[in-house]
């Protein structure tokens, strides 16, 4: 590289202190934008889930809500608590019957020598287990009265299944008590249905309130994100304007140096350099594909100060990297050839 000044023209670039300051500022802004993008994705996923839910409702129509409630019985409505009082009284009448004693506690499988019990009965049940689950406070208990009803039926069905002889005492006792229980349940069932209907309405109102609260929160987040993104865009625009204003006009010597140095670029770096010119100068006609340094003729006077400076700094950095890579490759080649030279000297 030959020029008339002993001072390297590349030293006329923006001070390192200012470059580091702008670099730090851009890093912080980039981190902020990345965080905003994550929040935008969260908002998009929320509204997509609402769209999917709405489409499912349109395609399937209004489905009948599931019977009962998944709330703990302790948190049930007044109507359901009244039903539970009636059910508990009904349950007490069944368990106090003189034939209820075989079903009050778990079957003593080992004591009675019932080796095949668990092969026949998949889910054992008894009234003490039902009482324990009804009083559970840790969330492991029953969620609605129909679950208790099902377990009471299970007690008697297990008994008739294992004692399949219809004339056996346990079979007769279980069948009789089940019949009495079902008659009482049928009397209670209208109140159960009414309480469940009221509870479903209450849960629907709660779900609607929760949904509206979520939509309000995400709507507020959307407005905030829009403002933050607009602010970040304005900051980038102002920064670009500031950087362009700091790009002074290249001196004739710098233009001459740039025109000479660009011919030393590798094919990949040359394409990147032409992309810089194409990006900001629509009058620049070169294609970045299949172009060589012999094809390029630059009219740097037609470039803006900003465009010329971008190209100037890119060529400087690219050539420095090329020189460093070339030096490493040269050293590696020397190391690979040294053993052969030593062998020749030893022969």
UniProtKB/TrEMBL annotation:
Q: Does the keyword NADP apply?
A: no
Q: Where is the NET domain?
A: 240-326
Q: Is Cytoplasm found in the keyword set? A: no
Keywords, ordered alphabetically: Bromodomain, Transcription, Transcription regulation
The family database entries (InterPro entries) matched by this protein are listed as:
Bromodomain (IPR001487), Bromodomain-like_sf (IPR036427), NET_dom (IPR027353), NET_sf (IPR038336)
The record, for SMART domains, names: BROMO (SM00297)
Residues of the Bromo domain: 95-170
User: Where would one find coiled-coil regions in this protein?
Assistant: none
Its protein name is Transcription factor GTE1
């Amino acid at each position: 590289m030959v020029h008339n000044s002993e001072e390297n023209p590349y030293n006329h670039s923006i001070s390192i202190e200012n470059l580091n300051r702008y670099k730090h500022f851009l890093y912080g802004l980039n981190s902020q934008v990345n965080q905003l993008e994550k929040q935008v994705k969260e908002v998009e996923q929320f509204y997509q889930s609402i769209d999917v839910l709405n489409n499912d409702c349109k395609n399937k129509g209004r489905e009948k809500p599931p019977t009962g409630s998944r709330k703990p019985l302790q948190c049930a409505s007044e109507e359901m608590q009244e039903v539970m009082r009636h059910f508990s009284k009904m349950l007490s009448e069944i368990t106090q019957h003189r034939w209820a004693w075989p079903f009050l506690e778990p079957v003593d499988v080992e004591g009675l020598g019932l080796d095949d019990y668990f092969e026949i009965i998949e889910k054992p049940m008894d009234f003490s287990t039902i009482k324990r689950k009804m009083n559970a406070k840790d969330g492991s208990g029953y969620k609605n009265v129909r679950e208790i009803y099902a377990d009471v039926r299970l007690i008697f069905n297990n008994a008739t299944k294992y004692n399949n002889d219809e004339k056996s005492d346990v079979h007769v006792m279980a069948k009789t008590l089940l019949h009495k229980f079902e008659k009482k349940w049928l009397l209670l069932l209208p109140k159960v249905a009414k309480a469940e209907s009221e509870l479903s309405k209450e849960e629907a109102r709660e779900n609607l309130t929760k949904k509206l609260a979520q939509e309000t929160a995400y709507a507020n987040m959307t407005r905030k994100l829009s403002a933050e993104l607009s602010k970040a865009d304005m900051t980038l625009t102002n920064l670009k304007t500031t950087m362009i204003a700091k790009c002074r006009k290249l001196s004739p010597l710098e233009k001459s140096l740039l025109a000479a140095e660009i011919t030393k670029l590798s094919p990949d770096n040359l394409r990147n350099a032409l992309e810089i010119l194409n990006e900001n100068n629509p009058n620049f006609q070169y294609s970045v594909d299949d172009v060589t340094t012999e094809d390029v003729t630059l009219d740097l006077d037609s470039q803006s100060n900003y465009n010329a400076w971008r190209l100037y700094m890119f060529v400087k950095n690219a050539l420095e990297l090329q020189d460093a890579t070339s030096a490493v490759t040269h050293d590696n080649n020397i190391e690979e050839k040294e053993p052969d030279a030593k062998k020749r000297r030893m022969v």
